[in-house]
Write a structure and sequence with these properties.
The chain has 283 residues and is α/β, with parallel strands linked by helices. The strands form two sheets. A six-stranded mixed β-sheet has the order 2-1-3-5-6-4, with helices on both faces. It has two domains: 133 residues, Rossmann fold, CATH 3.40.50; 134 residues, 3-Layer(aba) Sandwich (Rossmann fold), CATH 3.40.50. The two termini are 22 Å apart. Helix 1 runs antiparallel to helix 12 and helix 5 packs across helix 11. Helices cover 40% and strands 18% of the residues. The protein contains twelve helices and twelve strands. The structure holds NADP nicotinamide-adenine-dinucleotide phosphate. The site of NADP nicotinamide-adenine-dinucleotide phosphate has 24 residues, from helix 6 and helix 11.
Length: 283
């Protein structure tokens, strides 16, 4: 890659950010699509986001991705929000506009649904989402907007109730009783951090006994790629969708917004990310 004065710049702001696979993904897409662009990791400590965004805009960056712990603050700092960002209550993609303003988007939910569609999953019927954190909110909003009837179970029930009130849709069910609801669902989504490498174990085999044969099971956790939930679902003969496709799909809109080209989400892109994850990286 040759960087010149004309090279378009973007990056990912996080704390920490050294583990991020986004630079590898976006720089691969630049090379693959012949885009004169570069994407860099930008470690920005809590409290320094506003100054960092102002500086990057002044330095001519096209925009940035924003990840943990800055997504909610980015939501408050930008000048304009997309409908998806408003629904998610968070911003993960910012475009610096030529008029000096910042436009914030949240691509997690649309990326999740795009990945399901790429796996030929019908966006209809009843979906059960486990979790009510930041990622769950984006996923639930996108499923509701796609026309699904969404049940939500979260360990902390109040958090799920607040989410339903904020989104104006979805139905809360008890965390302890979610397996009872499976029989009438076409989709089960784990949007909690259960299954994440290094986190506490959970038994998924018993709850999945109630799952109907045609149900799809999706996990948004992708480290490990085959989570304990997906392993149990496969053993039960159910269709599974892992979290890596969501990671790739949610990145596409940012690349298009900054560099003007809609990038491929093909098998080669997936292989590139898998290689990085096996070497210990994350999204
Ligand atoms: N594939 C992708 O592109 C992508 C994108 C974004 C996030 N993610 C993954 O999504 C996961 C959640 O991220 P987030 O930002 O939503 O985190 P978050 O806001 O911290 O929410 C965590 C969620 O997990 C639940 N939880 C945590 N430990 C639990 C346990 N032991 N038992 C039951 N529930 C538990 C929490 O329930 P309580 O409310 O009760 O605490 C909450 O619903 C992370 O693992 C992240 O890596 C993937």
């Amino acid at each position: 890659m040759t960087i010149s004065g004309k090279t378009m710049l973007a990056g990912v702001i996080g704390w920490p950010v050294s583990h991020s696979r986004s630079p590898a993904l976006h720089n691969y897409w630049c090379a693959r699509h012949g885009v004169d662009g570069a994407y860099v990791p930008l470690p920005v400590a809590p409290g320094a986001l506003a100054a960092a965004l102002k500086g990057l805009m002044a330095a001519g960056f096209r925009g940035v991705n924003v990840t943990i712990p800055h997504k909610e603050e980015a939501f408050r700092l930008v000048d304009a929000l997309t409908a998806a960002a408003k629904r998610a209550g968070a911003v993960n993609t910012i475009r610096f506009e030529p008029d000096g303003t910042m436009r914030g988007d949240c691509t997690d939910g649309t990326g999740f649904v795009a990945n399901l569609e790429a796996h030929d999953c019908a966006m209809s019927g009843q979906a059960l989402v486990l979790g009510a954190g930041g990622a769950a909110r984006a996923v639930i909003a996108a499923l509701l907007d796609a026309g699904c009837d969404v049940l939500i179970a979260n360990r902390t029930r109040d958090r799920a109730e607040s989410l339903v009130a904020a989104l104006g849709g979805g139905t809360v069910i008890d965390w302890d009783r979610w397996p009872d609801a499976l029989a009438r669902c076409t989709l089960l989504v784990n949007a909690t951090s259960l299954g994440l490498a290094g986190h506490q174990d959970h038994d998924w085999t018993a709850p999945l006994r109630e799952a109907p044969a045609g149900m799809t099971v999706a996990d948004i956790v992708y480290v490990p790629l085959e989570t304990p939930l997906l392993r149990a679902a496969k053993a039960r003969g159910l269709k599974t969708v892992d979290g890596l496709g969501m990671l790739i799909q949610q990145a596409r809109a940012g690349f298009a917004a900054w560099f003007g080209t809609w990038p491929d989400a093909d098998a080669e892109t997936r292989v590139l990310l898998l290689r990085g994850l096996n070497e210990g990286g994350q999204g």
